[in-house]
């Protein structure tokens, strides 16, 4: 798998200007970890200021609309995210899929809009607990990938996939290392089926209750190319502990 380990903070609907101090601290520290690619996805209201406060880290949106502009009150387009200073956007997070009813087709259209605007994409997939209990986790995630992976030229180079089991998000629970390994292998196989050779280079992140004390174990799993971190990304201290864990593994 190509590339440096990628550690991305997803702030969700958290953060006002006071959080820019955390951004500055994360950015300064990121300079000490050249073997890790660090990014944060603040709320859209902070993207512009985050860009100003940070020199090194990547900056992302958390969602985008499929259109460039128009009568869509409250929505934000990929072009606007790019204009505000974003490098990438998350699409298809389970909170968007569940709370906003986003389908795989919606997520695919958003990913394609983001790529067209010149943004990278972190595409989230993951099964619910009942789907896992029913032995359907890999089938569910495979179907999500088939339905939501962007199908435009150059997509695999700008795409990361984040495997986030819905039951692990914000719960403190994480899958076993064996289950993460099996799922990431299954995602890799699916990406190669979708994209051919290009699918071999798509970064696959793990997300869901990643913390300082489990980061090394999760990041050591084959085919885990980084982490999408929610709660633990909200302070520089807890986020940098995860970045530091990734750096230690990258040194080995
Ligand atoms: P969490 O969230 O780290 O708080 O579990 C991860 C995510 O939803 O991206």
Write up what this structure looks like.
The chain has eleven helices and eight strands. It is of the alpha/beta class. It has an eight-stranded parallel beta barrel with strand order 1-2-3-4-5-6-7-8, surrounded by eight helices. It is globular. The model has no long low-confidence stretch (mean pLDDT 97). 2-phosphoglycolic acid binds next to β8.
Task: Describe this protein with a few key phrases.
252 residues, alpha/beta, 8-stranded parallel barrel, 8 strands, globular, binds 2-phosphoglycolic acid
Q: Helix segment count?
A: 11
* Approximate helicity band: 40-55%
Low-confidence stretches: none
First-residue to last-residue Cα separation: 16 Å
Structural class: alpha/beta
What ligand molecules are bound, each kind once?
Answer: 2-phosphoglycolic acid
Report the order of strands and helices.
EHEHEHEHHEHHHEHEHEH
Number of strands: 8
| Spatial sequence of strands, sheet with the most strands | 1-2-3-4-5-6-7-8
Determine the mean pLDDT.
Answer: 97
Largest sheet: 8 strands, parallel, barrel
Q: Which percent band covers the strand fraction?
A: 15-25%
